[in-house]
Amino acid sequence: ATQLESPFIRDAQNPLQFFNTQEFKLRYRFRKEVVLDVLLPLVNQCLTKQNKRGLPIPPVMQLLTCLRFYATSNFQLVSVDWRGISQSTISNIIKTVSTLIAQRLGEFIHFPNTEEGFRSNFRRFYEITAHILKIGNPGGDNGEVFRNRKGFFSLNVQVVSGPKREIYDIVVRHPGSSYDSLIFDRSAVRVRMERGDIPGLLLGDNGYPCRHYLLTPVLQLGTEAAVRYNTAHIRTRNVVERLFGTWKRHFPCLQRGLLTKLETSLAIICATAVLYNIGKMKLKKTT
């Protein structure tokens, strides 16, 4: 009997060659050189080591598949883009690549770690907030704890922002029913602020407890000073609200909601936070 040849997965177009600069960035959210020189090295070694049956999918194509999902939050649309790759394979790629990027969280998301870095942060104010990110029903015995007060399933993600809308700290493990104050009390940033490891002050809304290092709005506006304080507080805290807006616009999967498994959703949120900060770093170097 004649031995059948192993079928190729697909005769793929190379997006790096097929799309021009503007089309590529619109589709994958980063310039080609950033994908090749910055993002690919984060995952290339681990993806190369994986033992795959048949024709392996190159690491750069796996990375682009994941970035495309972040921009669409639609498995079917990504599957159409990558003809010949099944939805289950795409799902595995998204989980694997997201996890690899999320593992680099400590490298790209942190407070300034030098005195010069703190000095350059001229205001020394850090804005903290928790934000609801929609997910599918995780199921299981504890699935209902992820249902928030608005009735849908979500994660309550806490972020500390610097004055230039960079992410300095992120907590992604609490279900949507969790109170902001509880998330903060269980966070490492609270411990560091109380120890004095981080100079400056935190600004938060009234969902947070008012402490000597965490300033919240005044509830009783009986004086002109209180009104001025609240006005300045709101204006400053607007930074972190704009951060979430930019983060969601850059990665629409966060805006539309994640219907992936809970473990994958956590990895996607952390991975997009890493990519958000990388984007901020690259933008800073070009301006």
Automatic annotation (TrEMBL):
Residues of the DDE Tnp4 domain: 141-277
Domain of life: Eukaryota
Keywords: Hydrolase, Metal-binding, Nuclease, Nucleus
Pfam families documented for this protein: DDE_Tnp_4 (PF13359)
Cofactor dependence: a divalent metal cation
GO molecular function, one term: metal ion binding
Database matches in InterPro entries: HARBI1-like, HARBI1_dom
Location within or outside the cell: Nucleus
Gene Ontology cellular component annotations, sorted alphabetically: nucleus
Alphabetical list of PANTHER family matching this protein: DDE TNP4 DOMAIN-CONTAINING PROTEIN-RELATED, PTHR22930
Family: Belongs to the HARBI1 family.
Name of this chain's protein: DDE Tnp4 domain-containing protein
